[in-house]
């Protein structure tokens, strides 16, 4: 099949390069530039005893800094394979790996009494927590938004398919599209999880959600939209 529409990715590095590499293996050309810069933030270890770490992004381990060492005896419940791999590389034991967003990871832990430490970014998805479970959030990184590059805006005026890897990216992308007065109806979105699709809002040509939170599932949907 021939690719008839551009596919763009806006995630920060090193994720952007990884997605483009995965896309090339699947026969999809992905263009794009990061619309976020991931930065470490200063954080104080919270008081109290915890049973496990809840990790919704690999950036927790890329940017968490020396404070992570305090919790290496805690098992990690990771949102997906990439996050789990980074956790292991930093010396953590992975107890579970999600397949449908961080909420599904939390739900799968059951209704027992648990005290969880959620290491996360400053901009994060709200979770629905069982009454027997306590979750302490601690931001260890931030995603600083960047303006949409002029070249990307020019491409999207004629339509395209955009890959969205986080709710923050979805909101920022929508804001930039509206700021540049680009018609949403020309653009199809492929989201890594349901909450990301919701964050993007309405008015797009199509919004599809990957069956599992990984590039393989994401790119399979993109292929359906960009090939004839």
Automatic annotation (TrEMBL):
Domain Tetrapyrrole biosynthesis uroporphyrinogen III synthase: 47-219
Domain of life: Bacteria
Biological process according to GO: tetrapyrrole biosynthetic process
Pfam families listed in its UniProt record: HEM4
Gene3D superfamilies membership: 3.40.50.10090
Record key words, sorted: Lyase
Signal peptide annotation: none
Gene Ontology MF terms in the entry: uroporphyrinogen-III synthase activity
EC numbers on record: 4.2.1.75
Protein's name in the database: Uroporphyrinogen-III synthase
Source organism phylogeny: Bacteria, Pseudomonadati, Pseudomonadota, Alphaproteobacteria, Sphingomonadales
């Amino acid at each position: 099949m021939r690719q008839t529409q551009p596919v763009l990715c806006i995630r920060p590095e090193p994720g952007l390069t990884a997605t483009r590499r995965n896309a090339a293996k699947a026969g999809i050309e992905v263009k794009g530039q990061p619309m976020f810069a991931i930065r470490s933030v200063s954080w104080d270890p919270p008081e109290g005893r915890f049973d496990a770490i809840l990790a919704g992004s690999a950036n927790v381990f890329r940017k968490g800094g020396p404070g992570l060492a305090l919790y290496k005896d805690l098992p990690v419940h990771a949102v997906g394979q990439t996050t789990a791999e980074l956790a292991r590389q930093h010396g953590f034991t992975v107890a579970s790996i999600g397949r449908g967003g961080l909420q599904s990871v939390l739900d799968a832990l059951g209704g027992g009494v648990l005290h969880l430490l959620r290491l996360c970014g400053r901009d994060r998805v709200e979770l629905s927590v069982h009454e027997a479970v306590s979750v302490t959030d601690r931001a260890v990184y931030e995603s600083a938004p960047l303006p949409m590059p002029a070249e990307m805006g020019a491409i999207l005026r004629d339509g395209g398919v955009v890959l969205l890897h986080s709710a923050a990216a979805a909101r920022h992308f929508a804001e930039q599209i509206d700021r540049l007065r680009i018609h949403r109806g020309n653009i199809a979105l492929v989201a890594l999880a349901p909450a990301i699709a919701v964050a993007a809002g309405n008015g797009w040509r199509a919004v599809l959600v990957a069956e599992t939170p990984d590039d393989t599932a994401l790119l399979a949907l993109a292929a359906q939209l960009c090939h004839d």
